[in-house]
Amino acid sequence: MQDDALQAAEAWLAQGHGVALASVLSTWGSAPRQTGSMLAIRDDGAFAGSVSNGCVEGAVIETGLAVIADGKLRSLEFGVDDGTAWSVGLTCGGRISILVERLDHPADIKTLNAARAASEPLVRVVDLESGKTQLIDPYTDVSPLAGAALIAARSNLSQVAEVDGRRCFFAVFNPRVDLVVVGAVHIAQALAKMAEMMGFCVRVLDPRPAFVTAERFPGVALYTDYADAVFSHSPLQRHSAVVVLAHDPKIDDPALIAALRSNAFYIGALGSQKTQAARRQRLTAEGFSQAEIDRIHGPVGLSIGSRSPAEIAVSILAEIVKTLRQA
Question: Which residues form the XdhC Rossmann domain (predicted)?
């Protein structure tokens, strides 16, 4: 929904329209959209994106038109009790707080969309009193707002925070998680399918052509090469997670070596404690320190007693999300 709203906003601004942007500031209970969800509103009432399941859009659009007219920042709050929740789409008594602002700086929206297209992280900060906005690279910026922006970016959650007495909204625009699965085994099939449902960008690597087929991995980017060769032209990034499942050192080790030399936020490897110990010895021989090797989550996945490929995939994804949120 962020993409829809921002792309529409950029196009409308370029056409000379007045545009307002509504953003979900915070939610309570079972609200239909998460914090950071966006709705762009054009001066003729057209809109793109969503801040709810349609239950409050009408009121938000009306407010957006008023904001376009006078330029004044507005905050809205909607909430219902459990008895009427379902009728308007706010399940179980959910409540939602929404910021509505006029977009007065088209260049910022263009920059934001360009960064997203290039898979570069940005945080858009809105001062909730003055309405002033700022784009921040959370990993390089040194402004007073940088610390709070980095916290928001690392948690991958848009949020309201107070900095030096200023209450600000930090809207996070992180790239999609780049999940690289090495070893096209049964677990990989379940993992790829679930990860796509979570919005991850999934790549599956395996030098064995019989394993890497569109029938086994429909709609997934597939590579029949060793990981080091793939990463040489498609490098791992800060938003990459690498999961090694082949259980074959000839396939696994090049991937782990490349991952350890990258800034990927998550590295996981399948295998028993005995397998992990042998792997550590090989990586030590490659010159890695124990601290570097400790970046590897092995055995991969949270300990939930998983047995089937699907259960193991759940445990892996849970660990990836936990690592992402706690980075």
Answer: 179-320
pLDDT per position as a tens digit, 254-274:
999 999 999 999 999 999 999
**CA end-to-end span of the chain:** 25
In this structure, the chain runs to a length of 327
Continuous segment of H or E residues that includes residue 73: none
Share of the chain above pLDDT 70, in %: 92
In one-letter notation, the amino acid at residue 140 is T
User: At which of 121, 145, 173 does a domain end?
Assistant: 173
| Listed residues 151, 173, 195: the one ending a domain | 173
- Output the CA–CA distances (angstroms, integers) from residue 57 to 65, 76, 202, 273, 299, in the order listed: 12, 11, 33, 53, 46
User: Same domain, yes or no, for 186 and 213?
Assistant: yes
Domain span at residue 286 reads 178-326
Same-domain pairing of 208 and 280: yes
User: Measuring CA to CA, which residue among 130, 137, 142, 145 is closest to residue 111?
Assistant: 137
Token readout for 193 is 């399918």
Give CA separation, 62 vs 11, 58, 95, 96, 154, in Å. Answer: 21, 6, 19, 17, 34
Q: Tokens for 181, please give them.
A: 């699965």
Residues forming beta bridges with residue 26, ordered by sequence position: 97
Are 92 and 140 in a shared domain?
A: yes
